[in-house]
Amino acid sequence: MPTSSWTEPRPGEVINYLYLWRHEHDRGEEEGRKIRPCMVVGTYLKHGRLRVITVPLTTRDYSPEHSLELTPRVIEHLRLDTRSRIVWNDVNEFTWVGPDVRSGANGTPVIGAMPEKIYRQVAANILARRVKITHRTE
Hints:
The chain is an alpha+beta fold. It is about 20% helix and about 35% strand. Strands 1, 2, 3, 4, 5, 6, 7, 8 and 9 form a nine-stranded mixed sheet that branches.
């Protein structure tokens, strides 16, 4: 059920999102500090509203144990920085469309889509490690 003119996100899509890192949330912060590309891991309905589960992409050094490197082909396809990687042990969940979703130059928050193999691997890692989810408020 779309809540705006934007279409519902699908697993694997990369969107512009004001991401709140878990360590920021644990300090009591409620707003993310930077709009960054985030991959949609899944969606579900809760009380008639679409909930979206995302993980961030970063260019900073991040533990290889908790992140996934992207191939040059994927980086080029999504026009990402060459140092980009997916962090799978830090997860946000929010109601679509939400105030922290941002549109890009094309008028949509969607940057592009990851290959299915990547988002399935990230989802499997989250489930296997029982990663704590940061539930965002509106």
